[in-house]
Amino acid sequence: MVRWRHRYRSPDLKTHRFPDSFLWGAATAAYQVEGSPLADGAGPSIWHRFVRTPGLVKDGDTGDVACDHYRRMADDVAMMARLGLKAYRFSISWSRVLPEGRGRVNEAGLAFYERLVDTLLAHGIQPMATLFHWDLPAALDDRGGWLNPDIADWFAEYASLVFKRLDDRIKLWATLNEPWVVTDGGYLHGALAPGHRNRFEAPIASHQLMRSHGKAVQAYRAIGKHQIGLVVNIEPKYPASQQPADLAATRRAEAYMNRQYLDPVFKGDYPAELREIFGEAWPEWPRADFDLIGQKIDFLGINYYTRNVVRHDEAQWPLKAAPVRQKSATYTETGWEVFPQGLTDTLLWVKRQYGDIPQYVTENGAAFFDPPQAFHGRINDPLRVDYYRAHLRAIHDAMAQGVDLRGYFAWSLMDNLEWSLGYSKRFGIVHVDFETQQRTPKDSAAFYTSVIASQGAALDAEP
Ligand code: BGC
After folding, report:
1. CATH of 23-460, one of 3.40.50.2300, 3.40.50.2000, 3.20.20.80, 3.30.930.10
2. Is 435 one of the catalytic residues?
3. Are 396 and 460 in contact (CB under 8 A)?
4. Could you identify the atom of ligand 1 that is nearest to the CA of residue 29?
5. What is the pLDDT of residues 312-343, one digit of tens each?
């Protein structure tokens, strides 16, 4: 295993230049930034309900206001342009567009996304739209949500509506954001909406998510003219030792988190380890489902934050695998080890396992404690600057080793609602004062701007 040196440098390259076509962006998600969840005829999502259940979200925080982006969108896009961003990845709130999840269209909701896209394009910023970033319409949850097999049709209907309206202006689409988090957090451990804890439900939710992904890709082929892909979170798994029990635990952890959603897309089946992990709760699925799930996609989006060093632990349910904390590493505020080499490894692993599919890093970033206010107009966030420098070098390294990487999106454009952790964790390259909604670019934003403007050359300099 390669140990991370604090100042990560690409081993074989002194200079870092990215192709002119490389897409430099930042990302957000609807519920985390928009606020105004029920404005202009929008319907509630499962997150609207989850945050209203006492005890589920830190400090009782909600997305009712968030970054107020729904109302401040034009200023936010102007800020993106000032930062020099070439692309912006956002998600569409399904229940803003279809308040009951299906049927009746809320034109005002669609109009918001049309305005957003038009404003981005007017500033020369390319939109990448995610159709589902966790905010399922509450009305569909009432019908079983991701456990109901009909959801694949509901999702395809919603997707088709949005494709018809926006594909003339959006060239990059993603179906789902991180199906693993949706099922692990939403259906197995209950930390995220809809908050279930059920070993029997999790594999069903996963499968219906992937069928829905497949149906949306199929719908896109009938309507769309550009590119569509899937966004997964990958945490490379490294064994804590070469003991057979640790190696087997590492394989289970990798199958559960990293291969569960990619094997069916690219290899036509789930990894065998999942049957071992879920036991009697693991269902058999009709072969035809895998034809649907395996629709050809145009790119893969990788969300990378950290790695996981794994040891066998009988007490850990259901994986029997536990993370091992690294003594001399830096950890972020969310308790994640800073390990840039893992990003290079991940991009290369995808290429090795699944072939030469074009990839985007659709999220990468870190929560660190920031000074509460600007000092002399600056928010000094040196750990985040280090994080970005090292991870941007790491993607360059992967490209030098043959990965077809087309773009990179920092998570996140601005501090926002970190789901059940509320506003306690700040991932933004732009600081948000949640009292005044004042935005202040952090030093990490200035650094990222310099990397973009120099097409990577700013990464050459030793800090
Ligand atoms: C999600 C984001 C989230 C980020 C940091 C990803 O799992 O897509 O919505 O804020 O990680 O936790």
Report:
1. 3.20.20.80
2. no
3. no
4. 9
5. 999 999 999 999 999 999 999 999 999 999 99
